[in-house]
Design a protein that fits this description.
single chain; 2 domains; alpha+beta; 4-stranded antiparallel beta sheet; 3 helices; 182 residues; 8 strands
């Protein structure tokens, strides 16, 4: 078997063609990766969702003669918090407590405010929400001598606030802001 100059030239040309194809494919892949990096670095940050506070219509509020009497007959356990990371890169905290009704009446509307404060008592985030009837529909009212576990999710924690919460430099507070009876 003999190798001629013509077959060597054909092999060299085939090798050059393969190298050119690999070089072109590599350049295209590098340009796509660079374009993706530029896109991800320059896209605008998503805005955090705006959470509107809820109001209980027709309930007793602070300043009402019976509000303090009934509010003192509704006991709240020490609030607990769970938090999770959100898709947008922030954090959501859910404050929860057990509400105990000793008013002698059935509660069919309860508005509460959950607040996360720094160690100086300045609010970091807060949210007011109608917890009875519950948003999930789990319970519509709270009987006398009954208990209910009520959560208040508070989204939108970012950066330093999340770090303060992680390190335990935040206080939790839940309070009753309006009551409505059956």
């Amino acid at each position: 078997m003999s190798i001629t100059g013509e077959s060597l030239n054909q092999q060299d040309e085939a090798g050059k063609t393969r190298r050119i194809v690999f070089i072109v494919a590599g350049l295209i892949a590098a340009l796509l990766v660079a374009g993706l990096i530029v896109f991800l670095k320059t896209r605008p940050e998503p805005k955090p969702a705006v959470v509107l506070d809820q109001r209980l219509e027709g309930g007793l509020r602070a300043g009402s003669p019976d509000f303090e009497k009934y509010r003192n007959s509704i006991k709240l356990d020490v609030p607990e918090a769970e938090y999770s990371d959100t898709v947008a890169g922030g954090m959501q905290m859910t404050l929860a407590t057990t509400v105990r009704n000793f008013t002698g009446r059935t509660i069919n509307g309860l508005e509460m405010k959950g607040t996360v404060t720094d160690l100086d008592g300045k609010p970091i985030k807060e949210r007011t929400m109608v917890v009875i009837p519950s948003p999930s529909g789990a319970f519509e009212e709270l009987e006398n001598n009954g208990t209910a576990r009520v959560p208040i999710p508070i989204p939108g924690f970012q950066g330093a606030d999340a770090a303060n919460i992680d390190s335990g430099q935040a206080k939790l507070k839940m309070e009753i802001t309006a009551i409505k009876f059956k």
